[in-house]
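Journal club prep, shared notes

We agreed each person brings one worked example of a sequence with its structure written out as tokens. Mine is Acyltransferase. I'm keeping it raw so we can talk through how to read the token line rather than staring at a rendered picture. Sequence first:
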Amino acid sequence: MRAIKPAQIALFLALLAAILTLALLTTSLLGELPLGDFRGVTLVCAAVLLAYLYAFLVYRAFLYALPLQEGVVPENSRQELAANVNILFYLMLFNSLIRTHFLPVPLQRLVYLALGAELGANTYSAGAILDPPLTRIGSNTIVGHDAAIFAHVIEGSKLELKAVVIGNTVTIGAAAVIMAGVRIGDHAIVSAGAVVTKDTIIGAGEIWGGIPARRIKAAAQPQ
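Then the structure, token by token:
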């Protein structure tokens, strides 16, 4: 695993400082309102909420300026800067929203959309989408409890980004793992606890399971 370089940490800290400054300034404006006996609690909750809202905005602005690019990430490159600052945003800010099961699933959907995931209508995740900007999921799909989807590969010092694309009406079972570069067709099923290794292609209507995942049942043939 590569070390995150001081300049990359410094950039993240500068963005974090901007986020906290904006949140505190906005909270101070709210302090002028008559908030009653629970003024302190209300202002603290408002500050936390505003900090995350500004974090979403700053994060998306950062990705607009330095988008994540698929492929092997060269050392000391703009791609590495984008990838590592993205990792710092996840570790320092967004991990608590994605991994702690604090938020209800419908609100979790809004978080993933705010972080750049492409989610079709009526698609929800009770698991963790670890690289939302590189995750594209169709409509009417469910990602089960404690499942994990990630679009990065870390092998020693090698860092690579590969988008995950999941179709419509797909079921990802609880605690399943979907690795980088996986493609899953419409109406497919990945069973609970399965580990779908990187670059696997699952055809439409197929059922996969096991560690590593293998095809259990082929798609039904049209009558």
